[in-house]
Amino acid sequence: MVHEILIISLISIMIFFSAVITPVAFKNLQTDSLQLFLRAVFPVLFSIGLIISGIFTIVLGLMSETFHASLGLLVTVGFAVNKFWLTNRINHAKDQFDAGNDAAGKKFKLFHFISVAIYILQIILMIFILTI
After folding, report:
1. Are 104 and 97 in contact (CB under 8 A)?
2. Residues 6+ apart with CB under 8 A from 108
3. What are the tens digits of pLDDT across the range 37-65?
4. What separation in angstroms does the CA of 86 have from each of 6, 43, 96, 108?
5. What is the DSSP letter of 63?
6. CA atoms within 13 A on the CB side of 93
7. Which of 3, 13, 17, 92 is 20 to 30 A removed from 38 (C-alpha atoms)?
8. How far is CA 38 from CA 23, 52, 59, 121, in A?
9. pLDDT of residue 90
10. CA quadruple 85, 12, 74, 3: dihedral sign
11. Residues with Cβ within 8 Å of residue 59, at least 6 apart in sequence
């Protein structure tokens, strides 16, 4: 099924990014380069996720898989929240913290935690769609 291929592909992309790309970047790039790289790559990752999850959600809806399509919609919304809302707040808080605003460090940690929690929840939801 098309939706299964899309979901497996997206899970693979997300895990590869988390397990390989990000750790390699942290290990090998200087702080300025790392920041530029991550700020360029995360929006692309979230855009890819938004497109793929949107497509598999539509496919599930067309297949009358209402429950699974609803879960797919949650995954899609998660990518939209990360791309259009959280990424800007994370970057702004990080910039403010780097400029000496210690309170911004707490905001950065909170927004980053929410972003990671959404990301993990998306993977769990997609696995659930595949297995139930």
Report:
1. yes
2. 90, 93, 94, 97
3. 999 999 999 999 999 999 999 999 999 99
4. 25, 10, 15, 10
5. T
6. 17
7. 3
8. 11, 21, 31, 21
9. 98
10. positive
11. 2, 3, 6
**Residue tagged 């990000």 (tokens):** 22
User: Hey, what are 86's tokens?
Assistant: 């959280």
Alpha-carbon gap, residue 79 to 132, rounded angstroms: 22
Exposure b/e, 33-49, CB count within 10 A at least 16 = b:
eeeebbeeebbebbebb
Stretch (H or E) spanning 104: helix 102-131
Residue 9's Cβ-side half-sphere holds a number of Cα atoms within 13 Å equal to: 15
Cα 46 from Cα 31, distance rounded (Å):
22
Which residue in the block uniquely carries the two structure tokens 């099924």? 1
pLDDT, one tens digit per residue, over 79-129 is 999 999 999 999 999 999 999 999 999 999 999 999 999 999 999 999 999
Q: Which structure tokens are listed for 15?
A: 């895990």
Tokens of 64: 């009358």
